[in-house]
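Journal club side-thread
Mid-discussion, someone asked how the predicted structure for our own chain would compare to the paper's figures. Pasting it here so we can look after the session.
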Amino acid sequence: MSVSERIFKDPAVLQDARKDTAVLQDARKETTAVVQDARKDAGVLQDARTDRRIGAILVEQMKLTSEHVAQVLDAQRATGSRFGDMAVQLGLISADDLRRAIADQYDLPYLRPENRDVNSELVVTSQPFHPCAEQMRALRSQLLIRWANGGIRARMLAIVSPGRHEGRSYLAANLAVSFAQLGEPTLLIDADMRRPRQGRIFEVDEGVGLSAALSGRATLRSAVVPLPRFGRLSLLPAGARPPNPLELLSRDSFAILLHELQREYQVVLIDTPAAEPCADAQTVAFRAGGALVLARKDYTNLKATSRLIRALGDAGASVAGTVLNSF
């Protein structure tokens, strides 16, 4: 007698088989229910992650409760005002709370209220809608387009100009911040070891910096300062002023340092001394491979600018463009 014949002829065996089948069906139902619950939980989690409405952000930041949200929604429906504006009118949040929530909603770090306290020279952060800030973002877009069209991945530029007081440090700092605000891992290097300014602009300690890294007195990692309040930005300050800046920049150690940094950052901008009094700027531009030439309106000599562009070409550095500083 086969197994199947015995099952159908023996009632006890048939009853046991039915019980086993029922248990298996219950297990399948339970498994299906667990999977469905898990999918629901995953859907709720996904909704929470993708819900970037102002109300949800303010609740996440513990500025509003669910009862507050309901109160604002009722008032909003009656007046047609925006949610955030109505929450401020009802006194439930401050204007700074709303500003911070909007910054998180659109991933715009420069809209955070604490950025009003930064150095006024960082106009893209302290005054993000100032005409100069708009021009900085326009310059950023032009560079990105040029790099994309040229298939350039090594995005490294020296910021150079013929003389002093033409705005190199100002341009380098604001352009670096604008790239960081875009989400690009950005490094700003202050290679002006004669009259460094980036440490003062960003208000960081310049005790350890480029000069220490090039002379072997500090590691590169210890010299770089992260600046998360400005987005994905880091600063390599000039450090203590050395007696031989040109020699330090001319050594192979500087080229090796730049090569290491290119692997970690998508954009590297280098502030330089005035080009006419010394050869530092040409040396840095040669090591970087490219330069952005700056001239100041009604101040920079045209012949000096032309001489600098020719000198950069002779040094083997390509000129990515020229910028006229009219501010």
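Post-session note: Residues 1-8, 37-51 have pLDDT under 50 and may be disordered.
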